[in-house]
Each structure stands twice: as C-alpha cells, then as structure tokens.
From TrEMBL:
EC number: 4.3.2.1
Family named by the database record: Belongs to the lyase 1 family. Argininosuccinate lyase subfamily.
Single GO term (MF): argininosuccinate lyase activity
Species classification: Bacteria, Pseudomonadati, Pseudomonadota, Alphaproteobacteria, Rhodobacterales
GO cellular component: cytosol
CDD domains: Argininosuccinate_lyase (cd01359)
Cellular location(s): Cytoplasm
Protein name, as recorded: Argininosuccinate lyase
Domain Argininosuccinate lyase C-terminal residue range list: 370-439
Record-annotated Fumarate lyase N-terminal domain positions: 13-307
Pathway: Amino-acid biosynthesis; L-arginine biosynthesis; L-arginine from L-ornithine and carbamoyl phosphate: step 3/3
BP-aspect Gene Ontology terms: L-arginine biosynthetic process via ornithine
Organism this protein belongs to: Meridianimarinicoccus aquatilis
Length: 464
C-alpha cells in the first residue's frame, strides 16, 4: 500500500481505506465493549487495591490509580469520554485516559494482569448483572400473571390440544401455567448465576503470574464466591455467556408462545382478550383494526436471542485453549440478546397487566365443541360401570348424534341418550356443564378453581 494509506490493488477492492484502517475496523471492539466500562473500572480498582495490599505497588500509586479511575468513570457517565478505535477496546481506552490523568503510575495497574483475564472478569460481572435483571423482570411478569389468575380463577375457557377444543379449563389455570414456565426460567438464570460466580482475575494471560497476588481478595472484592481454579480455563471459558444465552433463549421461547396466544385470543374470531391501547396500534387504512403489535414483535424478536446462542456456540466450538481473538465476538451477541430479552419481558409484563379477559366470550367458547365429552365418558365409567374404552365409544355416538342435530351435549334429551345406551340416567346432566366439568378436576395441579387458588396462594408466598 502507498504511504498515504490508500487502497491496495491486491485487497483494496471496495475498501477505500488502506489496510491499517481495515485492520482497525475488524479488530476494534470499543464500539460495543464500552458497555463494560463500569465493570472494567470496578475490576481495575479491586486489582489495584490488591496489588498495594500485597506490596506489589505502593499505596500512593494505588490511591492515584483509584482516584484516576473514578475520574474516568465520571467522564464516561457524563458522556464526555473520547472513545478511540485506535485504542481497540474498553481496557486500553480506560488505561490510556488514566495515564493522561495521573501519569506514570497508571502503567503499574497492568502488573500481574492481562487483557485476557481482565475481559473475562468484566464480562462475567456484566452477565451476572443481566441474570439479576432477568430474574427481576421475570418476577414482575409472574406477579402480573398471578393478578390475572386470581381475578379469573373460576372463569371457564376452552382448553386446547392441537388448537382444537379439548376440555374446559379455567382462565386462572391457563395463566398459572405461564407462572410455572417463567419460574423455571428464573431458576435457570439463578443456576447460571451461581455457576458463573467465580473470578478469572489473576489468571493473567493464561498461566497465572509469578507476582505474589491474592486472587481470593480480588474475587471477594468483586462479589465472586472464589477465584477460578485453573488459569487456562479462566481465560478461555465462555460457558457463563452460553448459559445466560440458553436460559434467555428458553425464556424467549416462552414469551413467544404467550405472544402467539395473545395474537390469537385478541382476534375478532376469538375475542378472549382485549389488549390495552397502550400495547396495540391502529391500522393506517382499516379504521376498525387494533393490532397486537407488541405481542407480534416479542414473537419475532426472540429470533435474535436464539440466534445469539447459536452464534456464540459456533464461535466457541473450534477454539483450542486458551484465549483466541474469536472470543471478542461473544459480546455483541450477548448484549443484543440481553437487551432484547429485557425489552420483551417489560413489554409482556405491560401487556398482561393491562389485559382485559372477556369472561363471557371465554365461557361461550368453553361450551362449544363438545368440550364436556370426556366428563360424559367418565360418568359412564363411574356411574354405569362401563370400561373406559366402551364409554369412549358410547360418548362418540352421542357426540355424533348431537352434532347431527346441531346441538350441544347437555341439549340432548334423556330419551335420545338412552337410545344410545340404556344405563344412562338423569344424573348424567349433573356433569355436563362446563362449570361442573372444571370444578370436578380437583387432582393436584388440575384445573378446578380450588386447585388454582391453592397454587396462587403458594406462588404469592414464594414471591413475597
Ligand atoms: N477486546 C478483547 C476481547 O474482547 C480483549 C482481550 C484481548 N486480548 C488479547 N490477547 N488481544 O476479547
């Protein structure tokens, strides 16, 4: 290339910039890893304090470094910091500014440390915070679902399999199914957080260091349970990010499934729910429309989260120990996935809190589609002593009869029923209503309002 840095005939192509600029563009991470500035500065302060306590640097230098780092943080917080791509990443940007502010002492900060253990520490701290944020977001969503469940603990609605009416269930039961799903999500973040809470700092480049550092002190200062036990593992591990992403991906899938239900339920064909104006939009051409955009966008955005998991798994899968620059590609995926997840959780919480369930539509739909056919079959087993297979067959004949007459099961007369099976008595009408159906399902975890209320009480206690 020419000394002016102009495009080179061999590799220039569409790049008007010279190789230095191309290298900077592919190499620099400051454009995104500036989000790690708080963690980077906290890690550096812990490291400097430990170096001084161990007599590796003087107390005066440690104080100068700590004060200088506070000033750097203030500049970043105020939006006054000049980030430089030439300085590659957040670590070198902070250190370079520290040198401008405090002079030579800044050069002692990197004693017994490498960017490899530094970035591993910063990123763990960041992901750890995101686990906490996800757990908080999930708890808020669970509370919104609990409120909905409580309000409609005994409201009947169709329960579906294959999206075909199966048996009546309660609205409260349906809401509580999601409380369970989001509880498992929260526990995955909790597990991931507990496992990632070990400190890589002091692993240095990969082999540890000859300086008499105290890794237990820095680990404790940063809120970690202990230092990581193997320096090679410490700088090359990104399991914590993968576990965060897989927890986020599963959680996102749950959010997407609930979104899908909201889209279906809010349609004119279902009218099970009315979404608030705050989480819907109108159409620019069709005045009657109210679109469930927030639900649709949550459903769509989860691709970014599941995509991030696959992307980082792919980054990591071929890497020999220990650090490789490939690992710099961990951050954008995790940042985007975390942002997407937090936004989706907030939007879903808002939608659920604001949602109006239409009790009458739910109940009308619950009775349609012969939803109490199983109750009839169960009655034939219990009261008429039929084997379940025979009861299933008799019920099928009764459903066909009702369907042919265009009526629901409870609308058949006793005579019409007895024409199909002589042992049927008047008593059968006692199980055919949707309310009786749900009230009878009292097995643990079943849809009976009594069961649903018991689970709501359990969860209120657990979340308090
Ligand atoms: N920006 C780098 C990253 O995110 C920091 C570590 C650089 N280490 C190195 N040996 N070049 O991975």
């Amino acid at each position: 290339m020419g000394k002016d840095g102009s495009s080179n005939a061999m590799w220039g192509g569409r790049f008007s910039a010279g190789p230095d600029a191309i290298m900077e563009a592919i190499n620099a991470s400051i454009g995104y890893d500036k989000r790690l500035s708080d963690q980077d500065i906290a890690g550096s302060k812990a490291h400097a304090a430990m170096l001084a306590a161990q007599g590796i640097i003087t107390q005066a230098d440690a104080e100068a470094i700590t004060d200088g780092l506070s000033r750097v943080k203030a500049e970043i917080d105020a939006g006054e910091f000049q980030f430089s791509a030439a300085l590659e990443d957040i670590h070198m940007n902070v250190e370079a500014r520290l040198r401008e502010l405090i002079g030579a002492a800044a050069g002692r900060l990197h004693t017994a440390r490498s960017r490899n253990d530094q970035v591993a520490t910063d990123f763990r701290l960041w992901v750890r915070d995101q686990c906490d944020a996800a757990m908080q977001g999930l708890e808020a969503l669970q509370r919104a679902l609990l409120d909905q469940a409580e309000a409609g603990a005994d409201w009947v609605m169709p329960g579906f399999t294959h999206l075909q009416t199966a048996q009546p269930v309660t609205w409260g039961h349906h809401m509580m199914a999601y409380v369970e799903m989001f509880a498992r999500d929260a526990s995955r973040f909790r597990d991931a957080r507990a496992r990632m809470n070990e400190c890589p700092l002091g692993a240095a480049a990969l082999a540890g260091t000859g300086f008499a550092i105290d890794r237990h002190a820095t680990a404790a200062a940063l809120g970690f349970d202990k230092p990581m036990d193997n320096s090679l593992d410490a700088v090359s591990d990104r399991d914590f990010a993968l576990e965060f992403l897989s927890s986020a991906a599963i959680c996102s899938v749950h959010l997407s499934r609930l979104s899908e239900e909201l889209v279906i339920w809010s349609s004119a064909q279902f009218r099970f729910v009315t979404l608030s104006d705050r989480f819907s939009t109108g159409s620019s051409i069709m005045p009657q429309k109210k679109n469930p955009d927030a639900a649709e966008l949550i459903r769509a955005k989860i691709g970014r989260v599941t995509g991030a998991l696959v992307a980082l798994l792919t980054v990591m899968k071929g890497l020999p120990l220990a650090y490789s620059k490939d690992m710099q590609e961990d951050k954008e995926q995790v940042f985007d996935a975390a942002d997407t997840l937090m936004l989706a959780l907030a939007a879903m919480t808002g939608m659920i809190s604001d949602l109006t369930a239409n009790r009458a539509s739910l109940e009308a739909a619950a009775s349609a589609g012969f939803s109490t056919a199983t109750d009839l079959a169960d009655w034939l087993v219990r009261e008429a002593g039929l084997p379940f297979r025979d009861a299933h067959h008799v019920t099928g004949a009764l459903v066909a009869k009702a369907e042919a007459q265009g009526v629901d099961l409870p609308d058949l007369t006793l005579d019409e029923m007895q024409a199909v099976h002589g042992d049927i008595t008047d008593d059968v009408f006692g199980v055919l209503g949707v309310h009786k159906s749900v009230a009878s399902r009292t097995s643990y975890g079943g849809t009976a309002p009594a069961q649903v209320r018991a689970r709501i009480t359990d969860w209120r206690e657990r979340l308090s």
